[in-house]
Amino acid sequence: MKIHWTIQLFSQLTVDELYAIIRLRNEVFVVEQNCVFQDADDHDQLSYHICGWQDEKLAAYARLIPAGEIYAQPSIGRVATAGFARRQKLGRELMENAISFSHKTFNGMDIVIGAQIYLRSFYESFGFKKISAIYLEDGIEHIKMNLKFDS
Predict the structure, then answer these.
(1) Would you say 112 and 22 are in contact if contact means Cβ atoms under 8 Å apart?
(2) pLDDT tens sequence across 121-130
(3) pTM of the full predicted structure?
């Protein structure tokens, strides 16, 4: 599968790109996970949006949130892969891109994420470490994790 990756600020997204992002996030986080929550949380406007496109369809997405917006460090969130693109290691490629971009853009600052507990080992495979107890967010168990970069 050939994927074209883009990384854009909110203000650089076209209406069609933004619609594709909203649609994918709703498909994954609201419909598939049967979770009613407020996705429009006012963090998108200051975030970078990492999109993996296949034939003009959004196959993978994450947002990179600057330090000080949610956590003191930059954060990667809303990590999602479209149903049609699963089991092709796009989630791994997406996270590699997000981590690399964060490292360059935010001068090597550590990254903090709020991870769904069932994805703990996935994030650990990138070097993230658990830094909190399990907590509920929108009815789903999460843990806070940190990725430290060598100084």
Answers:
(1) no
(2) 999 999 999 9
(3) 0.92
User: 81 has which bridge partners?
Assistant: 60
Which CATH number is 92's domain given? Answer: 3.40.630.30
How far, in Å, CA of 43 to CA of 65, rounded? 7
Best CA proximity match to 24, nearest among 86, 116, 72: 86
Strand order in the sheet with 4-9: 4-9, 48-54, 57-65, 75-81
State how beta strands 75-81 and 135-137 pair. Answer: unpaired
Below-50 pLDDT ranges, the chain: none
Domain holding 95, by residue range, is: 4-109
Q: Which residues contact 104 (CB under 8 A, 6 or more apart)?
A: none
Number of domains present in the structure of the chain? 1
| CA of residue 116 relative to chain centroid, distance | 12
Report how far residue 11's alpha carbon sits from residue 122's, in angstroms, rounded to the nearest whole number.
31
> HSE of 5 in the Cβ direction (CA atoms, 13 Å)?
15
